[in-house]
Amino acid sequence: MSYSTQTQAQTEAGEVAGKEFLAFTLGREEYGIDILRVQEIRGYEPVTRIANAPDFIKGVVNLRGIIVPVVDMRIKLNLGTPTYDQFTVVIILSIGGRVVGMVVDSVSDVTTLSPEQVKPAPEMGTTFDSDYLIGLGTLNDRMLILVDIDKLMSSSEMGLIEKMAA
The CheW-like domain covers which part of the protein (predicted)? Predict the structure, then answer.
């Protein structure tokens, strides 16, 4: 990691400290996103598929008159085959004026992280692009992988959602 990249990572990690994060699970890992992006949390319900959409776009739902694209995060992040049960939820996000649904295995709680609890994300070379990571939040024996949901949901492939939902 270069000095500028490390400094940028430390700055980003510092900026999130003191913020509240919604903790959710995908497989065995626990992730956190900025609670200010969360509009609501709903139980998983069947979606309307969109022809020729990428696999990670499950489809769309009608949320009080708004057509909301729904992204399955297990598929998006290559975390195995998704299963849908009574714990599966859709987190409705408001990002850059868009409303997007995000399917996760479950949600647990809202956590506030202090500056000492947020560490820069290590370069791991995994299937998960570290550009979307803010850092790692540590809480006693828990570790939250902090996701920059704005970057993840406004990546180039996510632009496809708007075109398909239109």
Answer: 18-158
User: How confident is the model over 13-25, as pLDDT tens digits?
Assistant: 445 557 899 999 9
Neighbour count for residue 66 (Cβ, 10 Å): 11
The CA distances from residue 42 to 27, 32, 90, 146, 150, in Å, are 19, 17, 5, 21, 20
DSSP state of 80: S
Specify the 3-state DSSP secondary structure of 13.
helix
Residue 165 has pLDDT above 80, yes or no: no
Mean pLDDT of 96-105: 92
Global pTM reads 0.81
Paired sense of beta strands 57-63 and 20-26, if any = unpaired
Which residues neighbour 4 within 8 Å (Cβ) at sequence distance 6 or greater? Answer: none
Please state, in angstroms and rounded to a whole number, the distance separating the CA atoms of residues 50 and 45: 16
Task: Sketch out the chain's domains with CATH numbers.
Answer: 3-165 (2.40.50.180)
Number of continuous H segments (helices) and E segments (strands) in the chain: 4, 11
- Report the alpha-carbon distance of residue 95 to residue 10 in Å, rounded: 24
